[in-house]
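It is worth pausing here to work through a concrete case rather than discussing structure prediction in the abstract. The textbook approach is simple: state the sequence, then state the predicted structure, then interpret. We follow exactly that order.
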Amino acid sequence: MNRLTRFQLIRCNLSRKPARACILAGLVALFAFTLFCGTIIGQGVSAGTRLMAERLGADVLFVPYGYESEVQSSLLRGEPSSFFMDSAFAAELRAEAGAEKVTTQLFIATLKAACCTLPVQLIGIDPQTDFVVRPWLADALRRPLAENEVLAGSKIVGQVGDEIMLFGKKLTIAARLDPTGMGFDTSVFMDIGRARRLLLLSDLAPRLNLPEGLDRNTFVSSTLVKVDPATDVRSFANDISQRYAIPYNLDFVMVAGMLSDISARLQAFSAFFYAFSGLLWVLAVIVLALVFSASVQERKKEFGLLRLVGASRAALARVVMQEALLLGAAGALLGVAAAGVLMALFKTYIGVALELPSLSPGFASLALTGGGVFSLGLLAGPLASLPAVRKLGRIDAYLALREEA
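Step two, the predicted structure:
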């Protein structure tokens, strides 16, 4: 006769009621899935926000009045848009005290243009004054862009040296930007003068409704300012707006305010996910505890027989705890694995749906988070089995068998 081992006893008990075992493991899996997804999404948005603050470089963005939301949508999510203002404002701004760096950009929405093969945001940058994009290219491109060259965001299809069609012209990708988690990832950059000329020569120009009196040779979309550290950014922006808002029909966007809005949304999102995950974990522990307590009551005869043939109370306690540990491990592993697959398949869609800058965490961060979530799920089983173990210690073998007689 084969010897009955503890593992065989556990396997037989779980296989005897597979539906119950699956439900219990599924509850732990739901907890692990929710916590892993929420943590990874929160880490991605947090990393994207930090990188955005580092790479945007500017403190204030001056844009045409009424286009504040468009520039934020373009920066955060890469939503194509077109808007224009007089470049003379940038020249006046450079003479203002407190303006440490000033540059201009031109935003052109190629999504609505029949001439273009890529639905992207085209951004023209001034190579002479740019302090936003050029610093990213210290290693990727150490020379000025040629007339027919562009910089491609990380999500733009194509490698360095490939050609893309914009405004009926073939342009070569000179370099690719590293992922930023911002709308820049789905944007194409080129010299602002070249972008302006391509636009005016294209079929798109008549549909843009350029404001009356705007110089067709120098118009821009936004003016970005890096304020001197000794100058208060809010006071600087308010002062400039009061003096130039009416002449140039402009408004401003505070980068710090934009980032604080993102941080507030991230905190609300994280608080919800962690609270919901905590509730699921507590619920899993309670349900597991109730089920194992009921299971011990159901198996009183079984445990009584095991006690009579020499099994100690400690050995029976280990059986119950290991059953709970196995269910917790299976559920936690399933939940983490399912969440990992979901995040890998739909990370781009999730980032777009959140409408927040987001970066995919690295392997080390994923492994650390997955290990932590798995450990919490694993802990739920043994913790839930403690009431059942205490009840097991009070079972008398003789009385248990008499009750079943």
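Step three, interpretation. The chain has two domains: 6-50+262-404, 66-248. Residues 66-248 form one domain.
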